[in-house]
Design goal:
The chain is α/β, with parallel strands linked by helices and 730 residues long. The chain has helices at 22-28, 30-54, 86-101, 106-111, 115-118, 121-125, 130-137, 158-181, 186-215, 221-262, 269-276, 279-300, 306-405, 430-456, 463-469, 494-497, 502-515, 537-549, 567-570, 579-584, 589-592, 615-620, 622-634, 650-655, 672-684, 706-724, and strands at residues 58-66, 138-142, 148-155, 412-414, 474-479, 525-530, 555-560, 593-595, 602-605, 637-642, 660-666, 689-697.
C-alpha cells in the first residue's frame, strides 16, 4: 500500500536570531543560578559581619505617651481625657515628628547648642553638617496599637547614644513648654471673630427666609398651588373644546357663503315652512285658486264669451307672477337671515374662546408667580445651608486651634524613665538588607550572565530555535543515542532493530507528519540532507525509508552524497554500479538497484563512480532528470541521501529536482544563521523545504526533552505490565 506525502506550507521569513526563552534559561541553568544566589548570599553575609565588627550602630530610645485632649477646668484643676482615638494619636505623632526633625524645627537648633552634644564624639565626627547629621540620627516613630511613641538616637557609642537621647528628650519637653507659654492667641481670636460674624450672617439669612415665607404665605402655598393647577387643567380642557366649536362654526359660515355665491344654497326646512306660511303669499295662492276654478267653470259653460275666458286667464297670469315675486323676496330674506344667524353664532363662539384663553393665561401667570416664590425660597434655604457649612468649618478651625494651644505640652507624658544603654547593635541588620540583597544581586548577576550567554549563542539546540526563531516547520527531533537506554543494534536502522526505543518512536512521529494528510500534490521524491557535515542525514534517511517500507510502501533509497557515501556502511550488499553510472548509462539501472536482504520492499542504490565532470554537472543534466522520472514510475517514494546543504552546491541543485527537501540539523552544532542561509538558498532555486529534523537532541539537565522521554518510558512500561496483568478501564 503506497503512502501519499503532502508538502508542508512554506515558512514565513524570519530573523536568524531572537531572544532566548526565559523559562528555558531558568530550567537549563538552574544549578548555576542557585550557585550564584548562594555566593551572593555568602558575600552579603560576609559584608554584614564585617560592618557589624567595624562599624556597629547603637540606638537608645525614650518612650512618650500621648494623652487625650484636655478637659474643661474643674474644681480640682485641668485634667486630660484618657479616652483618645487611634486617628487622633496618629495625627498628633505626625505633628511631633515635624516638630522635632522638620525643616523649621527649633529642637535641632537648640540641641546643637547644649553641652551634651557639643562635647560628644558624634558632634566631632559630624562637625561639617551637624544639623543634617542630627536629623538623620534621630528616629521618631509610633508604637503600633498603642498611644506611645519613641524618640531614638543612633550613633556608634552605646553610652553616648543614651546621653544624647536623654538630652534631646529634655530639650523637646522644654521647647513644648516654651512654645505653649509664647503661643500667639491672635489666630484663635481672629477665628472667633469670624465665627461670630458668620453666626450673624446665618441668623440674618434665616430671618429673611422667615419673613419671606410669612409675607407670601408659603406654608399654605402648596395646597393652593395644587388647586390652581387643577383649575388650569380644567381651563385647558374648556379652551380645547371652545376651539373645536369655533372652528366648526367658522367652517359653516364659509360653506354657506360659498353656496350662496354659487346659487346652490338650500334653505333649512323651517325656513321653507315659514315662507309657505307667509299671509300675503297664502292670499295670492287663494286668489289664484279661485280664478283657476272660475275659468274652468267658464270653459264648461256654453255661451260664455271668449273675451271673458281670456280676461280670466290674464288675471291668473298676473296673480301667478305676483306669487313668484313674493316667494323670491321671501327666499332672499330667509337666506340673508340664515347667513346672519351663522355669523352671530361664530362671533359668540369666538368671543367665548377669547375669554377662556385670557382666563387660562391669567391662571398660568398666577401659578408661575407661585413657582418663582418657591424657587426664591429654595435658593434662600440653599444659601443658608452653604453659610452653615462655612460656619461649621470655622467652628472646626477654632476647635483645632484651641486644641493645639492646649495640646503638645499638656498631652505629652514621659512614659519611661531615662534611656537605657543599648547592648545590641541596631545596625547593620542582616535580614533587612545585606543577606537578602546579596541573594538578589547574586541571582541577578548569574541570571544575567547565563542569559547573555544564551543570547550570544546562536546555535540551533531546541525545537523553539527552529519553529519560533527561524519559523521553519519542525518534522521532529531525534534524541541522542546515549540518552536512549532501549536502543539496540545499528542506529541507522533503529526503527526496525529497536522498535521500542524512543529514537524509533521519534522516526515514527516524523513519518506520521509526512504522511498524515491525504490532500495536495503527492511527494514522490525526497532529498534528506544535513545543513552541515556530521548532521546525521544518512541515519535519518535510512530510518525514514525503513519506516515507510514498514507501511508496505515500495521505497528506493539512493546515496547521492558523492563526497562521503554512507549507505554502503549500512547496507553491505550494494553493487559498485550506482547513480552516477546509471545517469551515464541508463541501461545499467536494474543492475544498480538491490533489494535489502533485511527489509523486503526497501531498495537501495549507491553513488556509483563519476567518470566525467563533477557531481553538480551530473545532477543538472537532462539524463539525471530522465532517470528520476523513470524511478518515480517504478517506486512509490524515492529518497536521496544528499551531501551537506551548506558545504557544496550539489544538494541545492538536487533540491530543485525533487518534490521535497528534509534538512537535518545536529543539535548544538549549527548556527541559526547557517540554517537561515540554507533556507534562502533553497527558496532561491524554488526548492520546497518540507521541514527540519533536529538530530541528537540532548536530554541532560533541564532541557526540553527529558520529561517527554521519562513519560514515554513510564507509559511503555505500564503498557507492557498491562499485557500480563488485567487492569480496569475508566
Amino acid at each position: 500500500m503506497s503512502q501519499t506525502l503532502v508538502p508542508a506550507a512554506a515558512p514565513a521569513r524570519a530573523s536568524a536570531t531572537d531572544a532566548p526563552d526565559i523559562i528555558f534559561v531558568l530550567r537549563r541553568y538552574l544549578w548555576l543560578l542557585i550557585a550564584g544566589a548562594l555566593i551572593g548570599t555568602i558575600i552579603g553575609g560576609g559584608l554584614f559581619l564585617w560592618l557589624l565588627k567595624t562599624r556597629p550602630q547603637y540606638t537608645a530610645r525614650v518612650v512618650f505617651q500621648v494623652l487625650g485632649p484636655p478637659r474643661p477646668p474643674t474644681a480640682f484643676g485641668a485634667s486630660s481625657d484618657p479616652t483618645i482615638s487611634g486617628d487622633d494619636v496618629n495625627r498628633f505623632i505626625k505633628r511631633q515628628v515635624q516638630y522635632i526633625v522638620g525643616d523649621t524645627s527649633s529642637v535641632l537648633t537648640r540641641a546643637l547648642q547644649v553641652e551634651e552634644f557639643t562635647s560628644s564624639r558624634w558632634f566631632r565626627e559630624n562637625s561639617e553638617q551637624p544639623k543634617d547629621a542630627l536629623r538623620d540620627a534621630i528616629d521618631v516613630s509610633a508604637i503600633p496599637l498603642s498611644d506611645l511613641f519613641t524618640i531614638g538616637f543612633t550613633c556608634s557609642d552605646p553610652r553616648e547614644s543614651k546621653i544624647l537621647v536623654d538630652a534631646l528628650a529634655s530639650i523637646y519637653q522644654n521647647n513644648l513648654r516654651t512654645d505653649n507659654a509664647l503661643f500667639n492667641t491672635s489666630r484663635i481670636e481672629g477665628l472667633t471673630k469670624s465665627l461670630d460674624k458668620q453666626r450673624s450672617v446665618v441668623m440674618n439669612k434665616e430671618q429673611q427666609l422667615a419673613d419671606f415665607r410669612r409675607s407670601r404665605d408659603l406654608d399654605a402655598m402648596g395646597p393652593r398651588r395644587a388647586l390652581q393647577v387643577k383649575v388650569l387643567d380644567e381651563l385647558n380642557t374648556r379652551v380645547v373644546e371652545a376651539q373645536a366649536i369655533e372652528t366648526t362654526l367658522k367652517t359653516n359660515v364659509e360653506n354657506i357663503k360659498k353656496q350662496v355665491e354659487a346659487g346652490t344654497f338650500t334653505l333649512p326646512s323651517q325656513e321653507v315652512m315659514a315662507i309657505e306660511n307667509d299671509p300675503q303669499l297664502r292670499s295670492l295662492l287663494s286668489t289664484k285658486l279661485a280664478l283657476d276654478q272660475e275659468i274652468e267653470v267658464a270653459r264648461r259653460t256654453t255661451g260664455v264669451l271668449a273675451s271673458t275666458i281670456l280676461n280670466l286667464q290674464t288675471r291668473i297670469n298676473v296673480v301667478a307672477g305676483q306669487i313668484a315675486d313674493r316667494r323670491d323676496e321671501l327666499t332672499r330674506t330667509a337666506t340673508t337671515r340664515v347667513q346672519a344667524d351663522s355669523e352671530l353664532q361664530h362671533n359668540a363662539a369666538l368671543a367665548r374662546l377669547q375669554w377662556l384663553d385670557e382666563a387660562r393665561k391669567a391662571k398660568n401667570a398666577e401659578i408661575q408667580d407661585m413657582d418663582v416664590w418657591l424657587v426664591m425660597a429654595q435658593r434662600m434655604i440653599d444659601e443658608i445651608a452653604d453659610q452653615k457649612v462655612i460656619l461649621s468649618g470655622i467652628q472646626r478651625n477654632v476647635t483645632e486651634e484651641d486644641l493645639k494651644r492646649n495640646t503638645d505640652d499638656t498631652r505629652i507624658n514621659k512614659f519611661s524613665g531615662p534611656a537605657v544603654v543599648p547592648s545590641i547593635p541596631s545596625s547593620p541588620i542582616w535580614y533587612k538588607w545585606w543577606v537578602p540583597a546579596g541573594f538578589v544581586i547574586g541571582l541577578g548577576l548569574s541570571f544575567g550572565a547565563v542569559y547573555l550567554f544564551e543570547l550570544t549563542n546562536t546555535r540551533v539546540r531546541t525545537p523553539m530555535d527552529i519553529t519560533r526563531t527561524l519559523q521553519i516547520p519542525l518534522l521532529g527531533f531525534v534524541p541522542d543515542k546515549q540518552d536512549d537506554s532501549a536502543l539496540t543494534g545499528d542506529l541507522s536502522t533503529s526503527i526496525r532493530t529497536a522498535p521500542n526505543s524512543m529514537i524509533a518512536e521519534s522516526f515514527r512521529q516524523i513519518r506520521g507528519r509526512l504522511v498524515a494528510q491525504a490532500d495536495g500534490v503527492p511527494v514522490k521524491t525526497l532529498l534528506v540532507a544535513s545543513i552541515a557535515p556530521g548532521g546525521g542525514s544518512t541515519t535519518v534517511a535510512s530510518n525514514i525509508a525503513n519506516s515507510m517500507t514498514l507501511n508496505e510502501t515500495r521505497v528506493l533509497l539512493v546515496d547521492a552524497n558523492f563526497y562521503r557515501p554512507g549507505l554502503a556502511r549500512i547496507y553491505k550488499n550494494l553493487p559498485v554500479t550506482g547513480l552516477a553510472d546509471v545517469v551515464a548509462t541508463p541501461s545499467l539501472l536494474d543492475s544498480a538497484i538491490v533489494e535489502s536482504d533485511q527489509m523486503p520492499g526497501l531498495y537501495v542504490m549507491s553513488t556509483g563512480n563519476i567518470t566525467n565532470g563533477t557531481a553538480s554537472e551530473l545532477l543538472e543534466s537532462r539524463a539525471f532528470r530522465q532517470v528520476v522520472d523513470q524511478l518515480k514510475a517504478s517506486y512509490d517514494v524515492v529518497i536521496f541521501d544528499g551531501a551537506p546543504l551548506s558545504l557544496v552546491s550539489d544538494s541545492i541543485t538536487l533540491g530543485s529536482r525533487v518534490d521535497g527537501v528534509i534538512a537535518v540539523v545536529r543539535a548544538g552544532e549549527v548556527s541559526r544563521g547557517t540554517v537561515a542561509r540554507v533556507r534562502e538558498q533553497l527558496r532561491h532555486v524554488k526548492a520546497r523545504l518540507m521541514g527540519v529534523v533536529l538530530n541528537a537532541a540532548q536530554i541532560q539537565g533541564a532541557g526540553y526533552f527529558k520529561q517527554n522521554y521519562r513519560t514515554f518510558y513510564e507509559y511503555s512500561a505500564k503498557g507492557k505490565r498491562s499485557n500480563n496483568t488485567p487492569t480496569s478501564v475508566n
